Structures are given as structure tokens and as C-alpha cells.
Amino acid sequence: MILLIIIGMSLATMIPRIIPAFIVDKLQFKGWVNRWLNAIPYAALGALIFPGIMTVKEGEPHIGLLGGLVAIGLAYIGLNVIIVVIGAIATVFLLTAVI
């Protein structure tokens, strides 16, 4: 009985996740919808990262903000994401060590 419940719960969570993968390929969106959908990951990432930037070191939010600005600058010039992350981490590390 418990095995049937586990299988049923698995299907109930799996089906809503799999169906969009098959449907999205067949849908054609307008240009503005595609631009909006492409912006969602960046907005979500920003919402997740910003609170961490502000709390890098207690009482000194400028350290996190400087690290974030370095990341923005490196990303703006088109560097690889790994380089952007390493640059931001190095900036925060160095500022934390100095201050």
C-alpha cells in the first residue's frame, strides 16, 4: 500500500515537471514574450544574490557592494561566468583581509 502511495506521489510531482519540456518546443511565442522569458533567470539570480552581498561582513555592507560592482564590471566586459565569480570572491576576500 505504501509503495502505491509513493508511486502516486512521484507521478503527481513528475508529470507537471515533464509536460512543459515537451510542450515548450512546440509553442511559438512573440518576440517580447521571448525577451521577457529570457530575463527571468537574471532577475531571479539577482534576487537571490543581493541579500548575500549586503551581509558579507556584519556592519560593513560596502565590502559586499564593492564585490558586486566588480562582478558587474567583469560581466559587462564579457568575461566567462567563472572568472566573474572568482573576481568577486577575490575582491571580497582581499577587502575583508585588509579591513
Automatic annotation (TrEMBL):
Keywords recorded for this protein, A-Z: Membrane, Transmembrane, Transmembrane helix
Superkingdom of the organism of origin: Bacteria
Stored InterPro entries: Brnchd-chn_aa_trnsp_AzlD
TM region positions: 36-56, 63-96
Protein name according to UniProt: Branched-chain amino acid transport protein
Source organism: Oceanobacillus limi
